[in-house]
Amino acid sequence: MASLDSKLVGVLGDRTAKVLKDVFGYSTIGDLLHHYPRRYLVRGELSDIAELHEGDEITILAEIFSASSRRLQGRKGNILEVIVTDGSAKMSLTFFNQAWREKELKVGKQGLFAGKVGVFNGKRQLAHPDYELIADGNDVDSAVESFAGKYLPMYPASAKLPSWKVSQCIELAIGALDEVPDYLPDSIREKYGYPTLHQALVQLHNPIDLDTAEKSRERLTFDEAFLLQLLLLTRRIELKNLHAVARPAITGGLLDALDAQLPFELTAGQRLVAEEIDNDLAQPHPMHRLLQGEVGSGKTVVALRAMLTVIDNGGQAALLAPTEVLAAQHLRTIEKLLGSLGHGGMLGSNEKSTQVTLITGSQSAAARKEALALAASGEAGIVIGTHALLSESVAFKDLGLIVVDEQHRFGVEQRDALKTKANNPPHLLVMTATPIPRTVAMTVFGDLDISTLRELPLGRQPITTHVIPASEKPGFLERAWERIKEEVGQGHQAYIVAPRISAGTSEDADIDFLMGETTHEIASVDELGPLLSGGALKGLKVAPLHGRQSAELKESTMRAFANKEVDVLVSTTVIEVGVDVPNATVMVIMDADRFGVSQLHQLRGRVGRGTSPGLCLLVTHADPETSSRERLDAVAATLDGFELSRIDLEQRREGDVLGSSQSGTRSHLRLLRVLRDESMIERAREDASTLLESGLEGFPLLAAELAQLQADATAEFIDKA
Ligand code: ADP
Ligand code: MG
Prior knowledge:
By secondary structure, the protein is of the alpha/beta class. It has four domains: 43-149, CATH 2.40.50.140; 221-241 and 659-715, no CATH class; 254-453, Rossmann fold (3-Layer(aba) Sandwich); 463-638, Rossmann fold (3-Layer(aba) Sandwich), CATH 3.40.50.300. The longest helix has 32 residues, at 210-241. Bound molecules: adenosine-5'-diphosphate and magnesium ion (MG). Adenosine-5'-diphosphate (ADP) is lined by residues 264-267, 270, 293, 295-301, 433, 457, 578, 580, 609. Its EC number is 5.6.2.4. Residues 476-650 form the Helicase C-terminal domain.
């Protein structure tokens, strides 16, 4: 008898085992039994043929209505045409030179037929379909062999391995299988009324009824959630057990000096999060915290306070930003907030002070040398930088805190690369402006504690958003340019965002053509800038900004914009994250349907940051009542980042929802859907947490299963690196 670890060869023989290996990469019975059916066909309930569309890859259950072969005219060979029916509609199956099949394809027989729906002479047909005939109810011998049950599982399949072949392999594997030991603690299984692991596996593949199948699926889905949460919580406990230097808040230091000079009151939310962070930093174990907060919710000052706490304790902080524009802006913002507190080492500087330095890939050799020296000597309490911070030449005297801005742009690997520059495990604060639903955060950032800033600082201005259908209402676009002129007339500034840097390649036009779209040129920075400054925005100072410009040019353009020397910035999404120019009040986003929902929300967060309300205009050529337009309407309808991120996530594939953070465990997530299974993930998290409080000693099977998952995750992680 066999276990889940037994090789498939032993049960299925060399040839079949090889096909399963080649097609799906399976080598054990366990691998195969985790190949779950997508749905079930019910024996005797024929598929609805009228519903099939040309091009669909289908498997249908149908009855043979007629079968006849004839010679081909003027050519050699014959054609067998079999008509199948679901009782109302009919469809033809054709076979060339396989007249012998007429013997088995008998009128009245039912069978599964698989192939791609084609159209010939206006009629739908399957050419050379794979098929498997269903044994008659009284045909005992063959009935035991295949499709013994009432519910016929439909598997993800390939041309080499149609669903029923998979089904036959699984039947054989189950037949050979010993009772599978269950790793899930009985108490948990009984609490939810789940079947045992053995029952669940057998019943999912061969259910007696659909309820049983559903319960089995639920159990196996729960297992995925539960094991993943166990893994993440275990990692968290391991991190918590590492030794770090405690950096408790100190009175009379830089932190107090900053608080005394802040030009605003911290919001209640900021104070609460600050307390959580203070508390973490005071522990002799590394902080591992995610700070998520709406665009403009004031994360930077919260992070700065944490940095100063560490500096008050003699340590240094590194701030990792995704782009040079952002890094430079962080430098400006932090220098401004610190004022004389950031002028350490200078003549007449505040006695309680530190230095802030910047390390980027594009800075001059001299500037870099100076920055490296400041970081290494510890004179710079705050070191801000892009990926360049990760380079080997960068060293710290005593790196105590890492702040990562906009986490979704960085992988765990980069986070870890920076950690190696610290003498002891450093504290970590990860910031993201893309708020994500709790369960997604739990799954994607499951090893982090989570703080959330929900409220925006008082006096933050509302942003109004409108969709401008440029094809239907060209007048609206004219009006948009007018609005920009009005705002600039009142001393404000504007952003115009385009999806592209330069005019489209012919390739894109071809694709548009093939998709049957009315070809319209997607807006680009290179074209839009001159077009507007010579036309609709004549007289205004318009400057382009995009990723292909040199770092100096980008930096000087941003600086000019911040200093109001530029009225209108025409840019790509380089301004998407974090850019903070409170005087900007309008944003026009060209071809807005080319951007994702969260991205649009991020973009518009650039306006309404000052004392005047913000206006965001989403220009689109997408047709009304298309999903593109619906997405834009959704963005226009709400300012709630959580709601929008959910809409965004729902439209993505599961792998994209999880991002790179769970790459190591993703292959174990076959049934779990982070958004759909929210409440199950919550329950699994609680169960895992309760169990870990008393340890896994009493649960050796579970511990082994977890170790396996851990090993796989590590292996995949190493493969990737
Ligand atoms: P984000 O969370 O998007 O990074 P920032 O940290 O850039 O937001 O803050 C946005 C703006 O709000 C900045 O100009 C910042 O100085 C300001 N700000 C932060 N906290 C407050 C507050 N409590 N009251 C008023 N303004 C604040
Ligand atoms: Mg920010």
